[in-house]
Amino acid sequence: MSKSAKVMSKIVEINGIKTELTHYSSKETDHCLIFFPGNPGLASFYVEFLSKIHDELNGDLDIICCSYPGHSPADGSMLNLDEQIQHKIDLVDYLSESLSDTKFYIGGHSIGAHMAINVIKHRPNHNIVKVFALFPTLHGMAETPRGKEVSKITGAVARSVIAWVVVVLNILPMALLVKICQLVTKQPKPMAQVTVQQLCRYNTIKSVLHLADWEMKQVIELDKDTINKHCDKLVMYYSQDDGWVPMDYYHEIKAEFPDVEIHLCKDGMDHAFVTHHSVAMGVKMAGWIRNLIK
């Protein structure tokens, strides 16, 4: 088998919800990484990152990334945070049944890390070896610098206005939209193309902002009981410059949970690591997993 990852997407039904799964094929293995994106929850943003993990481990790890209902064209559901979390629990149930005797590693970025920790909370007996929480938003989201900014645009009226603006912008040529997206978001061209092609739709924008609204309302207190209960299975990775997870949050968690493996990035990665640091983060995460699957 070629070392380079063969990336395939398929639609499966998870408890009545059509779900887009992106699969990075492996050799015969009993190890599987399930990865949950941030918000927007599109697996397409994580292809370079997850391909790097796959290649670093020479195909010895199955990798499945889940796009979020309402964010992917596969399903138009508009789910709140609790419903998105339940969907991830249902997904792990589905994979646990279909991949029996498999050791699972759950990874999550940003709000995906919050979902990952909720999965091990509700499914502690599903053979989950480790949970990797990358730039995790675990508490006080609305009080962060970015949270205060985003809170201004997540209300019902603001969501509709922004979604209609996107509809109007869609009359522009695709190439021009991509350039505008690059200027506004600082995304490289391939990622800006994903944003324009998959996110710039009325219902999708509303769904993304709907989830963000619930994040601001619900991600308030740390789930200390769950973190302490599963401290030996958690790996957390923080940035030194993160508008969603300020350094005082890092210091608070580091002091509160001395038994959790917690890292502070020294390589200049920011919260949206997939924009410019997919390869570096992929190498780092592959190193953690390599030590577990030997």
From TrEMBL:
Q: Does the keyword Transmembrane apply?
A: yes
Tell me which UniProt keywords the record has, alphabetically: Hydrolase, Lipid droplet, Membrane, Transmembrane, Transmembrane helix
Q: Name one GO biological process term.
A: lipid storage
Can you list the GO cellular component terms from the UniProt entry? lipid droplet
Entry annotated with the keyword Repressor:
no
Q: Which InterPro entries did the record assign?
A: AB_hydrolase_fold (IPR029058), LDAH (IPR019363)
Which SUPFAM superfamilies does the record match to this protein? alpha/beta-Hydrolases
Name its cellular compartments: Lipid droplet
Q: What sections of the protein cross the membrane? A: 156-178
Similarity remark:
Belongs to the AB hydrolase superfamily. LDAH family.
The protein here is known as: Lipid droplet-associated hydrolase
> What is the organism field in this record?
Boothiomyces macroporosus
